[in-house]
Amino acid sequence: MPDLPLVPAPAAVTVVDAAPFRLDAATAVTGDAEAAALLRALLAERAGSPLLLDAAGGVASAVDLALAAGGAPESYRLTADAAGVRIEGADAAGLFYGVHTLVQLLVADDEGWLVPAVEIADAPRFTYRGVMLDVARHFHPVATVKAYIDRAAALKFNHLHLHLSDDQGWRLRIDSRPLLTEQGSRTAIGGEPGGFYTHDDYREIVAHAAANHMTVVPEIDMPGHTHAVTLAYPELSEEPVVTDEMREILRVYGGDEPVNGAPFQGLAVGFSSLRIHDEVTYAFLADVLGEVAALTPGPYLHVGGDEALGTPADDFAHFMARATAIVEGLGKTPITWHEAGAAAGLSPGTVGQYWGFRTPIDGMDDKTRAFVARGGQVILSPADAIYLDMKYAADAPLGLQWAGIVPARQAYEWDPASVVDGVSDAEILGVEAPLWAETLSTLADIDAMAFPRIGAAAEAAWSPPLGATSQRTWESFRERVGGLAALWTSRGIGFTRLPEIDWRG
User: Fold this and answer.
1) What value, to the nearest 5°, has the Cα angle with vertex 378 and ends 420 and 472?
2) With helix as H, strand as E and coil as C, how does 83-108 read?
3) N or C end of the chain: smaller count of CB under 10 Å?
4) CA distance 367 to 352
5) What residues are labeled active site?
6) pLDDT in tens, 347-381
7) Domains in the chain, please, with CATH?
8) How far is CA 253 from CA 144, 265, 268, 384, in A?
């Protein structure tokens, strides 16, 4: 019998030798009203018509959804047999995840729909389980962001990192700095149309995320990746630093060399910088970060710090120290990419996001350990494993390959605690799967690149360590994720049928 199609793999699952639970016209859902509404909607989407009745006297069977205090945060228990299904969540998030697990268990046969007899006790390995969506290189409208939230939350991700600014565009209205979107949001890579979020748009995204038990983490990338600022406030920016390496990137991928005051529509990175020793720069940071923080109820504010190749090392350290201090002063926890670990004055408690390789090179590990030494934690995002925009095959029509070709098995066979020596579970805040959008301009593009490899990232974030259970193996994963084909199709997810996966349905 193949493994049940559960992704991410639960902490403990037992298939019971008993008759399954069958959903029919006499089935009702009882208990928590919010979870019941979610379950009805998801099952109707899966089956193409409503499956569950409102609770009423005389029903023959029921799905019971309840909150049960005492478990770990976000945990749940699910039991199913011929008599019914019961899900107990330690909190609302746990009940939400239990409902999504139940939907994955649903099986169609000639008589209708059933749930196999099973006992599941589940809880996450890491508290931070993130996906990142780049809306700067190509702008993605609110509807697309909300759709990606729905997809990620179903796989038990609980943070959405939005990359809101880059050389190619500024994507969030800042009332105190209106020219950022009036001048800096109009274009995208390749000259495609740009766009930006109003405050109401952003609040809509935040609210939709919260309804799916996800926290929005906004990123304003600095001091590099800031060319769009030059379109609005040129007095804040240094002249571009263009190297031969950047010229080669432009030759391969197209685009003109960056010029201050002109939109940049290419793929090259590392040439831009804010003016580090000018106080007007920090007045700008205070305005922008203050407004973003006020719009964001979550605890984190990401200030970038990656690929600042146009900023001298001492200047970079000075800037990141001041930027993280501003964030801390706003009552938020700063997050930066791992390069900022080299900045001696970084605010204590800053979280470092590692985007290097499964085997660190060029001091990436030293910079990452520095966050822990200062009292912070680390988010793992190894590019050659869970950068979902890396090509899964050499002939893939979308994606890049600067971190190599990343097939599904490579995305799966790594463990967060084995990447950086000295950074184990206690020092790891969580795992995040970034999706950069240089080549991705539609939801269909996002689906094609993210699915199915996003499932591998989900297991790294939620499930027990690689090899710790019989399910935490590549052989099990390729069966389990393959069993989700029908569910994903019913949800309108345009996943790529990678030949590595044992697709069923």
Assistant:
1) 65
2) CEEEEEECCHHHHHHHHHHHHHHCEE
3) N
4) 9
5) 307
6) 999 999 999 999 999 999 999 999 999 999 999 99
7) 12-122 (3.30.379.10), 128-469 (3.20.20.80)
8) 26, 11, 9, 21
